[in-house]
Amino acid sequence: MTRRRWIIIGLAGTFVVVVGLGLLAAILSRAAAPLPAATPIPPRTIPVVVTTHDLAVRTLLQPEDLTLLDVPVELAPLNAVTDLESAVGRITMIRLVAGEMIARHHLADPSNVAHDLAFIIGEDQVLMAFPTTDLMSQINILQPGDLVDILASLEQPVLPGPASATDEEPDKELFTFSVLQQVEISAIVVEIVPARRTGGTTASASRTTTTDADAQPQPTPTPQPAEINPQAILMALSPQDALVLKHIKDAGGIIDIVLRAPTSKARFELSPVMAEYLRDRFELVISR
After folding, report:
1. d(CA 116, CA 40)
2. Tens digits of per-residue pLDDT, 209-224?
3. Which of 59, 114, 135, 209 is at 20 to 30 A from 276, Cα to Cα?
4. CA distance 49 to 74
5. Mean pLDDT on 104-119
6. Cα–Cα distance between 176 and 281 in angstroms, integer?
């Protein structure tokens, strides 16, 4: 019995040792195995407007020129355009290649009188600011995009006849004539003059007001027609036409603007008007 007992104990010990070694090998094998790869976090993206083809400088953007593309946040420019509505109708200030992300400083706004109007005039034109001294310009009828003609009255010396003395100062006569036709108004610069309103408050176009209840900024009231004071009319002209207008203005000419129909394309053949023209047309006879 003693021998059998020792054999059983030996077998049991051997089994325990084998099991222990197996467990140890499994633990060591698991410890040595590489850790499973972590599940990658999907990148955060934002939609960005990109070009569908190459675009030259001064291109007026149309819907077919643009598309939206999701890009990682870290790759998008800080001032990237993120919706198509903010880009369509704008003008490119630089050359853009196909697939290029569009930033806000790449685009000019044709309605921005202060900065971007230079991008909507032709390369052979200049932008001239003309004072609103005539009645038509002062009554808030003219709008950007209107077609107008420009008329002027200017005194000019009358050439002396053969019998006139050469040392006498020549007489002057008033001539009224058409200077330019079919000129499109690019923009109108106005000053908002605050008007006193009911309750003793004054509305200002340059600031917002707050209420005591919630201290939230209130929108500026829409200016009334009587508060709008036109200062200048901006027109895109050829350099020579701009020079003619400047000369007439500097020479003391009286200039008036007349409004055309928006569909008018005719070139009017007009004769300059002076005292002699009025006498002939209306058969005016002055008897002494």
Report:
1. 45
2. 333 444 455 555 666 7
3. 135
4. 16
5. 76
6. 15
